[in-house]
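Much of our argument rests on the idea that a fold can be written as discrete symbols. The record that follows shows the chain in one-letter code together with its fold in token form.
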Amino acid sequence: MRFDYDWRMIMRFFGTFALSVNRSLVALGVTVAALLAAPNAAHAETLDALGVLPPGQSGYVSTTGVASGTGSPHLTDQVELFENFEYRDINFDQPGTTESPRPGVTIIRDEFGVPSITGETEDDSWFGVGYAVAQDRLFQLELFRRATSGRLSEIVGPGFLDDDLIARRDYYTDAEVQEMLDRTPQRLVDRTQSYADGINAYINFVQGPGFAELPGEFVALQALPIDQWTVLDSARVGIFLARTVPSGDGGELRNALALADAGPKAFSQILPVRTPGQLATVPRSEGKFPAQPGRSAADRRKGFKKSRRFLAKQDLGSIVDTTEEIPRAAPQAGTPADEPGAGLRSILPSPGGSFMWAIQDPARDRAYLYNGPQLGFSVPELFVEFELHSPSMPNIHGVSAAGVPLVGIGHNGKVAWGFTSGLSDEDDLYIEKVTGPETYRFKGQDKTMDCRDEVFTYKTPPTGLPGTLTGLIKSGGSSSAPPPAGTTTERICRTVHGPVQANGDGIALARRYAIWNRELETIVGIDKLNKAKDIGDVDKAMDAVTWNENVMATDSKGHIGYWHPGLHQLKPTKWDERLPMPGTGKAEWRGLLPKDKRPQVIDPPQGWLAQWNNVPSKGWTNGDSEALERATGPLHRVGILLKLVSKVAKNPSFKRSTDIALTSGTTAQQFPLRDKRKFKRARTLAGADGRAVLDALAAWNGSYDKEDADGTVDPGVAIWEELKDQNEKIFLRKLDAKGIGIAGQTSNSHMFDITNGEAAALRKLKARSYAKAASRTHSKLADRFGSGDVGTWREERRLYPVGAQGAGDTPELEFFDRGTWNQSIAMGR
């Protein structure tokens, strides 16, 4: 426990003095001392707090440093900590340098540039946060507001026109955002205005007397003058994050095409509604929490047949995504920029992965929380870190997205909390029957779509940009010879179900979101979470949020809890949730899942909880599996966490809880979960080459991190990756489903994770097929490494692909399957 010893001496002085004068003054002395010590007393129940934010806090690149990607010393100064599994002290009141952008506001920056803001009033506090965030992330703020308002192409070129269209098509007009703000509590709107005032104070500074501190990207991209930040800008960033980070859009069209290609048997083997043996966060003893109460197994079977009959009549081959119709430069072949929206995801994230665990330590009346949200690495990060001391929030430390005046993940001295993407199916794709240019059939009547024209302006990017800025522009699909500057007008339409995202022959695809027009309600819940004093307050806060982030929390009394909140639609019982549904009115929702029926638990008897984007409860289904990893069942990556956390919970300590990340972040997740008996049986069936592969695999401990003097890793790394792939190929060939889209692929956040197809293969193949896969693995790797000697199959230690959201030079970063932001908190008394 941390103490401010000066305040303790003052407390003792007042107590002793009051006692020596008159016993009646003791209460007065204690009261005065308590008031003087209030800032520290309020957070005395955070016993310890550690964190790391790689590459670093800042995104500032100077005008003179654009060519070399240099500026702030805090661009990449946390990389070494991260790679060594070391942490910074993120307890309150770290020492540092002090500044005051206006009277009533104090900003103290620690040795890593992380600001602690103290304000005399609420207005002062959030003004200071806005000012400090703008100092660190002004160009990122500009990217965020343009990305969420559909105006990226105005500064980075036509390669982002498809992203701009998505931002305007699938989200809201200014008037609609303002209507949501009008329903938001005034105190939160006022806070956002104070935050905007702080940003604008810094914008005015760098466009005036502080021009030398202007971020160099604005000059390089000829993006001056800088517009003033508005409450609407913050609202749009918040709306985008509330919609996309927890879950994102669905995979129904992909699933329908896979079904048509492979047939119902293979489809259901690879992508079942509920995967047998699924690993859940809420212990089975605490409740089942079905995703679709009122729907039986018979209903699901009937729904699958009904959906297949419906889809057989649709011309899905004629579907054209509306983003394919706009003019843009040729994409860079073989990159994510081939996909509409890929550039937008390089600016603001779509669902990735995140892990967290909570462990009770009843012998010490304590609890430990670790959270590692995984949203990819870039310079700067999505997250910006700060500490706040305000009248309503005496002490709070954590991270948020630039532009959002809340602490997303953090601790406040009474409670610590973390998030992971919920990944549940909160939206559905409807196939509308088009009856005219802008009319469709709904409940027996023709209805007119709600349509509007949107004008998009784009520019030709300046030539001679530094490599990082060129890379940013190309992430949106820009070629070396983009079209000249210009404008284009697009027609955007909605049906009763939502925005029209694609058109076909006599059909249109419209997406219905459960959270539609309710994203900003989440800030009310997060504000309550920021101010929570115990686990009960967290529980109440979760009733107010509308997004689907998994939340885990601990409090100073040693309690732990987990919630899977948000708005979850009750789907029609006799239609298949994995596939598109008819928009004619025959497949409408039955309402929303009641709040008390959502997966949640406080203080489970086992004394611990773990989450890594797995299903929240045993009764939950895979939905349309927008994130295919949810269908991997007993081989889901959370399995390694369940083993590690349960072991530490038998002899808990803060250090042992923190050290879990060292093992989980350096081990191929499924390797400890493999069926060892099946592998042993496969060895007896394999030939000499296959046995050599399986023997090398058995000798490996699953680590992809340990290097030899040449910087190469154990042969088991290459063997395990190739063997999984060969298993999957054998399995898909048996199903006559080669190349099926629902087999999935691993992401940059989880290089050594398992795909949906690989997991299904490991679960379902017999030992004889394993032996065949081992033999093929030997052949493949012998060709790759130029030797049949298994011991020579050592590849270089893999690095994480680090992106740039500006001109900052990107560092080399060793790959670990762990958080973009990492926090480990010990709570107790």
User: Anything to note?
Assistant: The mean pLDDT is 90. The chain has 25 helices and 27 strands.
